[in-house]
Amino acid sequence: MKYLSEFRDPELARKLFDEIRSMVTRPWAIMEVCGGQTHSIIRNGIDQLLPEQVELVHGPGCPVCVTPLEMIDKALEIASRPGVIFCSFGDMLRVPGSEKDLFRVKSEGGDVRVVYSPLDAVKLARENPDREVVFFGIGFETTAPANAMAVFQARQQGLKNFSMLVSHVLVPPAIAAIMEAPDNRVQAFLAAGHVCSVMGYEEYYPLSEKYKVPIVVTGFEPLDLLHGLRQVVKQLEEGRHEVENAYPRAVRPEGNLPARNMLTEVFEVTDRGWRGIGEIPHSGWRLKDDFAEFDAARRYSVEDIKTEESGLCKSGEVLQGNLKPHQCPAFGKECTPRTPLGATMVSSEGACAAYYQHRRFEAVSH
Fold first, then answer.
1. I need a labelling partner for 240 at 20 to 30 A (CA). Which of 64, 232, 295, 364 fits?
2. Helix boundaries (H) for the chain
3. pLDDT < 50: residue spans in the chain
């Protein structure tokens, strides 16, 4: 707690707020890409304490939220089959599919288990040679190295009963898609520190130059976020568009090279659908052909499952930054954490869950 408190110092926070307030002269819309940052911003009231000219736009950086509905339905189909042990992180169990969720499958007799690492699933496969073990591999670049390592180790250990349902997505193509949207109003980005701790931030330079937007790598504590916001606002006011690192204690330009090498070994880039957004070219990873035997979608022949999103749920607009959660007509009514219409209300990193948890049912007033 000693070290955490260093990044939550109210006096230092006040000084950073004052600096931002003193330099801003016009309205700016800044997107924090990461759902973890969104929750920190809402929980600590940062958006309410900023000058009214600085608007924080919540982005699509919640891995649970952007996992496509059809991928959830594929998971449900696989998890319902006899002889399968379906393993997932806990935050995926309540994400609604077309008709039910993984908790419902579990209540109906499916062997659905929460694990804390994909390597736990590999261990289960080794200990249960008569069962098929499937791990639900979702997330951004942050969780991908461990998932790649799980597949790599399964092959090394000769496990024939382990596979992975892969739904990994990548941040840079999502930033490009946001900037190219006809109704885009985002003028700068706070990049997710944990993603950049793996991948570095060199791939953001072309984006910053092409779209003329500042991109600042930022952490998750209040002072981290305020430091990043100060650097973003300074760039915007000075008419600059550069990539800066406001999280140097955790992020290096090149990222984590062993982790990146493991990703290159196991995965290859592919087009990927994002829940509520649609397909973004070159925005995901899939298993390389060398590891095709560990692809659960192929093994269980669920590749052709297609779905349609609920017309009542506006989570796609929330994920693109076009709508604040409380502006959705279903927010807090038809859609609550107990009766969620979309993943943004379920996930611990979802913007709708943050607004509901912290009672943001009305527009923020400065």
1. 364
2. 2-6, 10-23, 35-43, 46-49, 63-66, 69-79, 102-107, 118-127, 144-156, 171-180, 193-199, 204-211, 222-238, 257-266, 296-299, 315-319, 351-357
3. 1-2, 365-366
